Amino acid sequence: MVNHARLRRDFAALGVEPGQVVLLHSSLSSIGRVEGGEHTVVAALRESLGPDGTLTVPTGTSANSDTSPAYRAAVAGMTAEEAEAFRSRMPAYDPGSTPSVRMGRIPECVRTSPDARRSAHPQTSFAAVGPQAARITGDHARDCLLGERSPLARLYEAGALVLLLGVGYDKCTAFHLAEYRYRPDPPRRGYRAVVDDGEGRAWCEFEDVQVDDSDFARLGADFERAGDVRCGPVGAARGRLFPLVAAVDYAAAWFAANRAPRP
């Protein structure tokens, strides 16, 4: 059984310190049997960061869009009428109450904390707790999933660290910020999501960078070999801690070298 004291020791050994700003991606089950579950993990990490530290987690709602893989999977095999009925029942995004989708139990624990702040994007929101939470999550533009007007850019400015806890680089959303930066004209596409701006449920449409995480595992392996990653156990999980700025800058150069230019 992994308890609070062991988590505190493991976080400290990995390099988590008071006052840091941390973007966490996590798998609770990878840590092992945790006494108190996700609440113990969040409490131990917040105590490790101290009152001056800020913890941020992704709280995305991919099922809130009809242009997402989650939607396509949900309506696969439906008739056109069934798919339209399903679409008509999709609830509008509410930052205060809409659960995240496939983010895990630890992010949900952070999102539902009494002092949590959450960004307003209907697909790629983030939640944060701590003194920088409002600045990190505020002003998340609807037509900017993960770019310069998103929490990722605010985390970059804050000199945040990324903590991968029992997950791989394929879950490292920080790399997405580099997709907006590695070339002046990254590929773009259209998106739709259901929202409520105070006048009832409605669909919004916008164009943004075409984000793609299919090569993140390979990118992450190269980044780790570059030597700016601290690795160590957290319970039974493998933890990785590294500067978000270094990860984004490395990824921008890596994309420029390894992604084929658009025809």
TrEMBL record:
Q: Name one Pfam family in it.
A: Antibiotic_NAT
Protein's UniProt keywords contain Transferase: yes
Annotated GO molecular function terms are:
aminoglycoside 3-N-acetyltransferase activity
SUPFAM superfamilies, alphabetized: TTHA0583/YokD-like
UniProt catalytic activity:
a 2-deoxystreptamine antibiotic + acetyl-CoA = an N(3)-acetyl-2-deoxystreptamine antibiotic + CoA + H(+)
Family classification: Belongs to the antibiotic N-acetyltransferase family.
Protein's name according to its UniProt entry: Aminoglycoside N(3)-acetyltransferase
Q: What species is this protein from? A: Nonomuraea angiospora
- Please name the taxonomic classification of the source: Bacteria, Bacillati, Actinomycetota, Actinomycetes, Streptosporangiales
